[in-house]
Amino acid sequence: MTKKILTSFILLFTTLIFAQNEKEITVKGKIVDASTQTPLEYATIVFTSTTDASDVTGGITDTKGNYNIKVAAGTYNISYEYIGFKKLTINNKSITSNTNLGTTSLSVDAETLDEIEIVAEKTTVDIRLDKKIYNIGKDLTTAGGTVSDALNNVPSVSVDIEGGISLRGNENVRILINGKPSALAGFGDSNVLSQLPAEAIERVEVITSPSARYDAEGTAGILNIILRQKETLGFNGSINLNAGNPDLVGVATTLNYRTEKFNLFSNIGFRYFDAPRTSDSDTYYFDYLDEDGILQTPEYRQIIEDQDVTRLNRNYNGNIGMEYFLSDKTSLTGSFFYRYGEDADLSTNISERYNGGLVEQTTRYERQNEEDNSYQFALNYITKFDDNGHQLTADFQYVIDKEEQFTFLDENYDFTEDANPEPFQREQIYQTEDQKEYLVQADYVLPIGEDSRFEAGYRGSFQNEVTDYLLEQENITDGSLFVNDTITNVFDYSENVNALYTQYGTKLGKFSFLLGLRLEHTQLKGKIDSRLSDQELNDAFSFPIDTDFDKNYLGLFPTVNLIYNLAKEDQKEESITLGYNRRINRPRGWFINPFPTRSSRTRVFQGNPNLDPAFSSTFDLGYLKRWDKLTLTTSVYYQHETDSFERVQENTGSVTTDGINIIRTIPVNLSTNKRTGAELGVLFNPEKWLRLNSSINFFQFNTEGEFNGVDYSAKNTSWFARFSSKVTLPAKIDWQTNAFYRGARSDAQSDTDGIFSMDLAFSKEIFKDKATLSLNVRDVFNSRKRNSVTTTATERVTSEFQWRQRQITLSMIYRFNQKKDRNRGSRNNNYNGDDEFEG
């Protein structure tokens, strides 16, 4: 079976060079499906000389099933092959003149198709020296969904209700696309992944113990998303249509044209959706002592807020590129990616204020329009010096992103007992963010013997972000607008990283290891251009800040990955892995910009330019056991992080015009964070028609540290689990159920309840398996809501937050000049990761 597929793929990707004879003869014909008489596109025809087995000539059919091949006069064994069909061979065919072999019919090989389908339908996991590779297969619940939806079904990974991605409960995870930072993953903003279709994913690599090849960023580890790309010769592609409720309309197309010298590929999509969001909060205010020790009584004892947000999003994205084969072992790939996003959000916040009874009600309106343009240019060069893995790759990437945002804020009284209330100011905010990033990378791989490999490389990443923020407020006396000098600013922030690495891996019997060392120099540089003086800025933000900083860090990041194969030769895979790595967490621009947000008068987020990078050391011990129908994976881990980032809430000491305390959330380096955990995953395929997949993660963290004289130390234990089942029903209907539960968790200030959600999906192949129709419901019970209680020295806030409501989606994907997904090949997009060294 394997030999058949391998032979077919080799013939599809390589036009055989035929020996010239004194007389060339043209052989024509056509190949069709015996049952339907439809042409078989890109079927292979092989002519093998009966006198010299090494004399092989061949070709493939066009989109109409026709072939036209030149051969030398002689006698041949002619074979006809197509994946999923029975091979047909005609022996001792004499060809002495131009010949038309007519129409040849191939019959479906049911046994082969079943074997192929079983392999592709499984959600498999491969354990490598530094990663787990999840071939996510055909996940019905993500049909019409996004990359974020697909990631939420990967073991060890969870996506919270706000779109934040965490690995083993740790949010500091690095997102890569095809092994590199990419505009497709955004500039540290994982919400961008909610704009990309899930169907684009080939596999997800969960790298909890990254080798030295990878950037040291991300204390939790790395999620490397490998995108699909077709390899079939000729022209092929697919069209994906989606519609749903709340309003969702999407179309995406993948087109590919491949010859022996080049491969043209493109992915183009449009997505419009309404993502309504709701939140409710009940805040109770305590009496408190101010800085002078005087007891203060709040203006209001209780405030209840009810917020509804309508979010209309229009997203366009396109990727086009060409891979050119300079020789059999050398290729150059260039690609261009563009994304345009247009958002229109309308927020209505009704606020009720109590002192015993209701004394005031207001409605606050926030209208925000945003446009986002992203461009990415990428070049990749690869040359293979031999077939044993000796190769050199070089990459260059340039990314431009520009975001323009306009926000209008207005608040009015619906009811008040105050005879002469202070009117609210209208506000207008103009904000632009210009971001640029250069990436230069080179990697060299040298095999040493059959079981060893040496690697070395360089990566330079240079990012710059300029945020221009202008706040205009209303002059109550005449209604005109004036610039607020205390908030308006320009923040110029750069992050430059230069890195060198080397690593060596070898296999010694059943034992393998991969040792690496990475040297990184990090420069964090920022300048705040404000109309306020440095002293005025310090007074305004209640803590001293550096308005022009240039911080440099030089670090060594060792990695150790070990694997021991326990299985005997006649057994399935069984292995133990042990990993150690040191990582860094660099603060992003919005974590450093000290100017507060304005979406709420009473609650603001404020960056901290005094933030330093956090460093972590992690140990990971894993075990894998694979039986015929069952795969078991488990691991335990320990992480010690210094200067870890934590967000704390505190009273600024300022109040609004109507006497409400202003509370800010600010990130700080909160000393140490110790995290321990364990995870268990089970994949079970008892029958061809049934697939079961479950995993559970248990973790505990212990944070120690204080800020502004307040101790924020906390100890918390939490867990999350998921279960998935897929059943094949009669009439070729597939039914999939996904369930997820995240346990309750706590930190120094907040207690959050557990969250349960469940997804359902059904699909059916139509149009002779050329199309798939899917219906899915995400969050069936509309239960994906975060309920929490936050307590500080001045208040207690009870809140409920829902980022996205239940979504019902109808999706259809139509494939042309392709077989069903189970027969589809994929490329690695020139990504050459450590998965080549299995040990």
UniProtKB/TrEMBL annotation:
Pfam families: CarbopepD_reg_2, OMP_b-brl_3, Plug. Residues 384-814 form the Outer membrane protein beta-barrel domain. It comes from the Bacteria. It is a multi-pass membrane protein. Keywords: Cell outer membrane, Membrane, Receptor, Signal, Transmembrane, Transmembrane beta strand, Transport. It is found in: Cell outer membrane. SUPFAM superfamilies: Carboxypeptidase regulatory domain-like, Porins. This is TonB-dependent receptor. PANTHER family: PLUG DOMAIN-CONTAINING PROTEIN, TONB-DEPENDENT RECEPTOR-LIKE BETA-BARREL DOMAIN-CONTAINING PROTEIN. It comes from Mesoflavibacter zeaxanthinifaciens subsp. sabulilitoris. Residues 1-19 form the signal peptide. GO terms for cellular component: cell outer membrane. The lineage of its organism: Bacteria, Pseudomonadati, Bacteroidota, Flavobacteriia, Flavobacteriales. Gene3D superfamilies: Carboxypeptidase-like, regulatory domain (2.60.40.1120), TonB-dependent receptor, beta-barrel domain (2.40.170.20), TonB-dependent receptor, plug domain (2.170.130.10). Belongs to the TonB-dependent receptor family. Residues 144-222 form the TonB-dependent receptor plug domain.
